[in-house]
Specification:
mainly alpha, 24 helices
Length: 479
């Protein structure tokens, strides 16, 4: 019980620091180190460091940070940084812009504003598989899709609501949260995406699409929205210079962001499963490992795809030396993600280690068992907790990375597989970010469109509530 008191105090301290605008990295790290210190002082954990103790409690507290950093950089960190490096290079060559241009003509062909809004929504949910960055994709859409929508009679806030939720589900094998969840569940990211995410996310995407249509139609009517073409053109012309800053490469560049997904899904057990369904191989061959011999991991897929992009650039510009030197953009992208995300993962895992060291998880599980809580109630409670944390932090990654390491222990106590518990929780986390007025993506698009971020999240709140309800329903079905 003492550990539970310390845990709630530490969580309260964490929320207070976030409220005071202390960045999530330091808030998580300080809260974690405090818990580790209390565990050492009160003897709540016999070994703060399981292996490699420095034989002094004070030193061991910081040794947790050292070991967490080493382990994360060698595994999950490298994977995420390689994705970021590839994304940075795609921005450099303009491939993301080229990918959107594939959808530009079909979007312009839709005449009804609300039908166009729904078509845009489903287009965005496809694009997020190849551009796994909430803020990055949102900003790209603001200079590509947003002008199409508002010129076609869609209200500014309706257009912004679709862009604001562009990554409300972190799905696809290139997503940071998916990589984290699959690593904890000890499942290949491609398998996690195809077999565990899609059966849940597809119904959510459809339900949210309906909610987007109905909510925006209601709010536009309530706000007495009237399309004013002259006013829209005037505002868009003021931002025209921003669009000129984008590289506009040949249309063939649209295939570059797709290459990693093809490699990851094509050379994985997902491909083997397709071969079984087609009757090319049988299920027994999968067990004897005589099926597809070639395998692919995420970092290798990203590096190969980057080199393919470099070849495209050499052919385009006919400048070998300058193009080869552009590989530094890949490494700078890796470094940027280390500062923003990998360091956050490490701090979150230190916080999780602190919670484990004071016995928070074990005590909480016993309380839940004694209260007679069912598994669905536990999953729903944790999912809602992380969604609230994402709302407060303005980041789905920060919330999920902080609590994800605790999930295997909870799942073990309830005798279920980690994947059964972590999948719905991981899906839910992004919903909170999309109703947070301090989320970077929402702040950025609100500033560009010159509207209040609160007006944007007012439009996203009901669709995200629908998403949460459908997620819980799908969890109940699959439990």
């Amino acid at each position: 019980m003492l550990g539970l008191i310390f845990s709630f105090f530490s969580i309260a301290l964490l929320v207070f620091m976030l409220y005071k605008k202390i960045n999530a990295h330091m808030a998580l790290l300080l809260s974690g180190l405090l818990l580790l210190s209390l565990a050492a002082i009160f003897g709540l954990s016999p070994h703060i460091v399981a292996k490699g103790s420095l034989n002094l409690g004070f030193f061991d507290i910081f040794e947790v940070f050292n070991q967490t950093m080493s382990k994360t950089l060698a595994g999950l960190g490298l994977t995420l940084m390689s994705i970021a490096g590839f994304s940075a290079y795609m921005d450099h060559v303009g491939a993301s812009y080229a990918l959107f241009k594939v959808f530009e003509k079909p979007l312009k062909a839709v005449k009804s504003p609300y039908v166009l809004l729904i078509v845009a929504y489903f287009t965005v949910q496809f694009l997020v598989l190849f551009i796994p960055s909430h803020a990055g994709l949102a900003l790209l859409l603001m200079v590509t899709m947003y002008p199409i929508l508002v010129r076609s009679g869609v209200s500014k806030l309706s257009a912004l609501s679709v862009i604001a939720i562009c990554q409300y589900i972190d799905h696809g094998p290139g997503s940071g949260n998916v990589i984290m969840a699959s690593k904890i569940a000890e499942i290949d990211p491609a398998i996690y995406f195809v077999h565990y995410q899609l059966p849940t996310t597809l119904p959510i995407i459809i339900a949210v699409g309906i909610a987007i249509y109905l909510c925006n139609k209601f709010f536009d009517k309530k706000d007495n929205f009237i399309f004013n073409k002259q006013e829209i053109e005037k505002e868009l012309n003021e931002n025209e210079s921003k669009e000129k800053e984008l590289k506009k490469p040949p249309r063939i560049y649209a295939i570059l962001p797709i290459i990693p997904l093809i490699l990851i899904l094509g050379f994985s057990s997902v491909f083997d499963s397709i071969l079984v369904l087609m009757g090319i191989i049988n299920a027994q061959e999968l067990k004897t490992e005589t099926a597809t011999a070639i395998k692919m991991n995420v970092p290798v897929a990203m590096i190969i795809s980057t080199f393919v992009a470099i070849i495209f650039e050499i052919i385009r510009y006919k400048s070998i030396v300058e193009t080869l030197n552009s590989i530094m953009i890949f490494f700078k992208g890796m470094g940027h993600l280390f500062v923003i995300t990998v360091s956050l993962i490490v701090c979150g895992q230190v916080f999780a280690s602190g919670l484990l060291s004071v016995g928070f998880v074990d005590t909480l599980i016993e309380i839940c068992k004694n209260a007679g809580f069912e598994m669905l109630a536990i999953i729903s409670a944790i999912s809602i907790l992380l969604a609230i944390c994402a709302f407060l932090m303005g980041s789905g990654n920060a919330a999920f990375f902080s609590f994800a390491p605790l999930i295997p222990n909870i799942a073990k106590h309830f005798n279920i597989e980690t994947i059964t518990m972590i999948a719905p929780i991981q899906i839910m986390t992004g919903f909170g970010r999309c109703v947070s007025p301090i989320a970077p993506a929402i702040l950025a698009i609100s500033a560009i469109a010159k509207v209040s971020p609160f007006a944007v999240v007012k439009r996203t709140a009901i669709p995200m509530l629908v998403a949460a309800i459908v997620n819980i329903i799908m969890t109940y079905i699959y439990l």
